[in-house]
Amino acid sequence: MTRLPRTKPEIPTPALLVDLDRLERNLHRLAEHCRANGVSFRPHAKTHKCPNVARLQIAAGAVGISVATVFEAEAMVQAGIRGVLLTSPLAEPHKVDRMVDLVRGGSEVLIAVGHAMEVDMLAAASSDLGPSALNVLIDLDVGDRRTGVQPGDEAVTLAQQIATKKSLRLRGVQAYAGHASHVVGFAERAMASQAALALAVDAKQLLKQKGFEADILSCGSTGTWNIDSRFAGVTELQCGSYVFMDIDYRRIGGSDNAPLFVDFEHSLTVLSTVISAGHADRVTVDAGIKAFSTETPFRAEAVDQPHLVYTRTGDEFGIITLGGPGALPKLGDRLEFLPPHCDPTVHLYDQLYAMRGEQVEAIWPIRARREN
Ligand SMILES: Cc1ncc(COP(=O)(O)O)c(C=O)c1O
C-alpha cells in the first residue's frame, strides 16, 4: 500500500493544494465583516464542493451553505450541513424528487425557485409532506439575465402561485447579480451591484406589502462582499470564491482605487513538477488543460516566481519560458501555480491537500464534484 504524503515534496503532481493559514484568514475576514455589518452569510459551495470547507464556514458563523446543483445539496446534507440553499432552478422531475427527498429525510433546505413549472413540480412532489414543509425563495433576475423572474409583477405572480401550494412556504427572494461581481473598478462595481440590489429590495417590499412572507434577501458575491453587506434590506451573502481566490478576481481592483483586489488571500494552488528540460529556452511541467480551468484569458502564475511564464500546450503539459531576469527551473523541480479561475479548477480534482506550511495536515475529498 502506498503511504499517504506527509509533506509537500511527497505529493504526487499535478495536485490541488489549499494553504490552511490563508484559508482560515479568508473565512474569518468574511465572517467578522458580516458580524460587524449585521448581515448573515450562506457561502456558496460551488467553489469548493468540499464538505470539510463547508464545515469550517459553518464553524465561522455561516447560517447555511449555498449550492448550485442537486448533487452538491445531497453531499452537503450527507455531511451534516444544515441550511442548504439550492440557488439554481430545476426543470427535471427526478431532481425535484431528490430535493424533496432531502426534506422528507428531515433536512432543513431552501430552494430558490425560478419559474412557475418548478413551483408546480415541487408542490406535486411534496404533496404528502406537511403544510409549509418546503421552504422556497423567489429567484429574481436583477440584471444578470440568467435565471429567475423579473422583480415586480412577475415575482408577485409567482408568490401568488406558491401561496396556493400547501406544502410550500415562501421565505423571501434571491438576487444574484453575476453581471456586477467582476466589474473592474470598485466604484463601477458598487454602482452595478447597488442598482441590482435596489431592484431586489423593492421586490421584497412589494411582496411584503401584498401580504407575503419575504424576510430573506440572499445575494452577493466575492467581488461585491463589502458593497452588498452595507445595503439596507440585504439579509445574507452568498460569496463563494473568497475562500480560495483566483487570478480572475484579483484583477477587478479593490476599494480606494487599489489596482488589485486583495481583500482575500490566494489560498488555492496547483502543484506541478518539471518533467522535461531538454531545451535551453523552456521546460515542460505536468500541468496542462486537465490541471487548470482554461476558459478565462488569464494564465496560471507561478507563485513567487514572476519571471516564469506559463503557457498551456495540451491536456497534460504546460510550457514554462522566461519572461524576465532569472533562471528556468530544473528537471524534477516543483512549481506551484495560482489558478486562473478557482471553481472550475477545483472541479478537475478528486481531493484537496490541506497544507500547514510544508506539512500535509489533511486530505479532503471534493465530494460534491459530480455534475448532476
Ligand atoms: C447564485 C450564485 N451565488 C453566489 C455565487 C458566488 O459568487 P463568487 O464565487 O463570485 O463569490 C455564484 C457564482 O457564480 C452564484 O451563481
- The Rg value, from CA coordinates, equals 22 Å
Major sheet: 9 strands, mixed
Distance between the termini: 33 Å
Hey, roughly how much beta strand do the residues contain?
15-25%
Bound molecules: pyridoxal-5'-phosphate
- Helix share bin: 25-40%
Order of helices and strands: EHEHEHEHEHEHEHHEHEHEEEEEEHEE
Pairing-aware structural class of the strands and helices? alpha/beta
Our count of helices gives: 11
Number of strands: 17
What average pLDDT do the residues reach?
A: 97
- Which outline best applies? globular
Low-confidence stretches: none
Summarize this entry quickly:
With about 375 residues, the protein is α/β, with parallel strands linked by helices. It is about 30% helix and about 25% strand. Strands 1, 10, 11, 12, 13, 14, 15, 16 and 17 form a 9-stranded mixed sheet that branches. An 8-stranded parallel sheet has the order 2-9-8-7-6-5-4-3.
Written overview of the protein:
- The chain is of the alpha/beta class and 372 residues long.
- It contains eleven helices and 17 strands.
- The strands form two sheets. Strands 1, 10, 11, 12, 13, 14, 15, 16 and 17 form a nine-stranded mixed β-sheet that branches. The chain has an eight-stranded parallel β-sheet with strand order 2-9-8-7-6-5-4-3.
- A hairpin with a 2-residue loop joins strand 10 and strand 11.
- Helix 3 packs parallel to helix 4 and helix 4 packs across helix 5.
- The relative contact order is 0.16.
- The mean pLDDT is 97.
- The structure holds pyridoxal-5'-phosphate (PLP).
- The site of pyridoxal-5'-phosphate has 15 residues, from helix 7.
